[in-house]
Amino acid sequence: MIKDVLRLISENRYASAREIAESLHISPDTLEDIFDRLERLGYAERLGSRADCGEKSCSGCSLKSFCDKKSSVKILRLTEKGRQAVKSE
Amino acid sequence: MAKACCLAEKSCGRRPSACRCGEGIEHNENHMGDDLLFAMVGNPNVGKTTLINAISGSNLKIGNWPGTTVERMDAHFVYHCLPEHRGDSRLTVVETLKKTGEAAEDGNASESSENSGVSEPDGAAQTAAENTGTGGGTGAKSETEKGAAPACKILKAELLPAKAENSLKPAPKGAFLDNDCPLAQEKDKLGFDAETDVNIHLVDLPGAYGLSASSAEEQVTRDELLTRLPDAVIDVVDAGNLERNLALTIELLELGIPVIIAFNLLDEARAKGMRPNIEALSRALDVPVIPTVAVREEGVGELIHTAIHTPRSALKVSYPEKVEKAIADLASYLDHPAARWIAADALIGDDLSALTDEKCALGDTENERKHTPLKLPSDFKRKVEYYRKKFAEEGIDCFLEIADSRYRLARKLAELGQEAPAGVHKVTEKLDNVVLHPWLGVPVFLLCMFLLFRFTFLFSDPWVEWCDTVKQVFMGWTAAVDWLPPTVRSFIMDGVLEGVGTVAAFTPVLFVLYIGISFLESSGFLARAAFLIDRVMKGMNLPGKAFIAMLVGFGCNVPGIIATKTLDSVEERLRVSMAIPFAPCSARIAVFVFFAAAFFPAHASIVTFALFLTGLIMGLLTILLMGKILRSGDTGSIMELPSYRIPTFKIIWKQASARTVNFLESAGGVILLAVIAVWVINSFPAGAPENTYFAQISRGLVKFTSSFGVDDWHLAGGLLPGFVAKEVVVGTLAVTYAGTAEAIQPLTLGDGLAQMAVSFVDAIWETLKAVPGLLGITFAEAAAEAEETAGLAEIIVKTTTPAAAFAYMIYVLLYMPCVGTIATLKNEFGWKWTAFSCIYSLIVAWILAVISYHAVGWLLAL
What we know:
The structure holds 2 protein chains of 2 kinds. By secondary structure, chain A is mostly helical. Chain A has a single domain, classed as Arc Repressor Mutant, subunit A, CATH 1.10.10. Helices cover 45% and strands 10% of the residues of chain A. Chain A starts with a helix and ends with a helix. Among the domains of chain B are: 321-405, no CATH class; 442-531 and 587-795, no CATH class. Chain B is built from 37 helices and 9 strands. In chain B, α9 crosses α17 (398-416), α19 (441-480) packs antiparallel against α21 and α20 (486-504) runs antiparallel to α31. At the A-B interface, α1, α2, α3, β2 and α4 of A face α9, α17, α21, α22 and α23 of B.
């Protein structure tokens, strides 16, 4: 299942996590858990997320302290390790 | 199986010889007295804390795990295992240890409690058992307190009512005791069910989604389970989110420790329409599954009772053949119940050093089971390296294989444990069915944006007028100071007050706009825009996620360009960064609000919305066009959308105020400098306003702007300082038109204050009247007022046609990035692309201004 998630992200067929969850018949919460694991083990990286705020995308924004991070969209992107893992499958 | 005997033997506390399992004795050697150690584990937010509170009552001790800031909660208590309590939900909990001081003190207290814990709680339990009514708890407490030793004060001794009327389905009895367990078979002969006490130490481990040590919480959970080997793990599972919770359960089962599932939040799951199949889940997992509703303390007694007697599960995760063989081989080197999990974790490459560290026992206290560091033989480590290298060469990713197997099993188990998983939708999913609908989505998004502008106009207009009155009052007061030299008075009135005051009048507009944006943003709606546009853009082979940076650019172009760092390649970043200057930022919206209200008072929100759409479409077309120049492959990525929520008024107010203040702070200095500069070059040489330096330069520009209908040199001149910042345009117009305005009448202090007060009351009344206006209900009086214009707007309307005004707004929308954006573009991409952006936007702005001038002129003539 986790391999299917990696493959679907790499295929760029779906825009949102919800679509991937629906396509794999898994719950969105499980998918979020999978994303967390993929991120922690370096297969994917989250951009524009709470962890990045103030360091990457928001570094130039004077409003970052007022930013509603919970409501912002996050992007999960495959890293080189993630792309290699998909290729080797 | 054997472990079950040990637990049962410990629980009866009377017949050590009856235990036929040597393994249990080994595990128990570090026990403090007869304490059973239970660990409570679960995902975050599944009700663990509520459950441990329900079990332990006020016995709960709260602190931190040693060396971490992770909160630790645990409780010591005695469980009375009475024959008549078997299988129901009765529980008597008596405090046996309540010391939070020194370890020595703890030890003494422990001794006292152990001495008294056998007799005193018995009395409590007996009393409680005899009391079948609701007053049982109170009765038990007073009875016990009489004879209790000082260190054994009863804090909670209550008899929970039997749950016969409970709607929850009781867990299958057969699942509680392993029939193969010799002790279980002989329980009656052994007197197992006789009245007895069990000392229990219940530890609440930090919430975790897995056992890999990738966070402080997960590491504490993993280390505690593997180095203290609890007698049973109470796995708190959210009945409404089975699949995700079972991923952790599967890892727990691999530890070789008896697991009992507290099937919590069952009432919520049922309320959502879910139909969990507890029996099927229990059978599939081969563990007891006890339904609990922690907030009502339902199932709590049964949970503890079952935890005492639960065996190990026989469920085994099936890994791919090669990985399975490696795990079995590695596990054979380890003498540990969790050998299989440790082997799998080592293959994944997880850091196990914390488990082998002797320091892991440093936090031990006398009244708790000691930590035993893991012993990993050197052969084991060598074999791990061998397998990892081998699998890497074969292209087998151990993490993916192992995690995949576990998740697949979790999904299968979740399917078995749910009778009706389909058709269950959260609010977010229901709303998304409309908001993200392939056909409805974009119209819904556009409608919301239109309503945003309508809301902005309706609610800000009364306050713009009030700000204008305040400005007029200050000018009146300045006019009344007759001792000021005429040049100084002109500078204050026509320069500072007129320029800054006009822009300051935008404050209500921006504030109301930011309230609307904050609402859409905090509710999770705005994030959906990126998803909606993604569908459109994917059709054009464009990276949909690029729109997120554009969305940021709608607030201010500068952070929008910086936000392109989230994109995959420099080419993608360039494509989007060239488009962002077309996103109508707050500064430009302020200009549009002024012009739209002046020239199209009845349709101001439609005009502003049209400009917003123009900027959006131009941005998308630019990304498309740039894609022809800069080829970029879109690497794998996905968007995670936040859940919908109703934002609080406090959050919206805070965000809107902060953004407005920030705009005024950052724009205030620029505006002041710009209007002073314009006033200076517009005041010299002295004489007729048409002959000033500024007028001469502006008249030169009219030759260009007349192509889109703007023949007035004041308007053409406003574009010049607009290069610095777009919000300066209106301030400049105010300064240059100042000479043509009617003379300001001097005001006394009282008259001025009275004017401001009257205007303030009017503004409040007009704001209240705007509420029905948002729904399309307008009063005849309000409609008539909408046709009126005043001050600067009144002068401009006389000199320019609506078609030219619209073209002027289009030009302001698209021409040249402001200085801040230019500086950011230069820093990110260098001068070449910055120059390209400037020239490209000037050309696009002129073409569209000319087209829109003729198009609007034609439409108005119809």
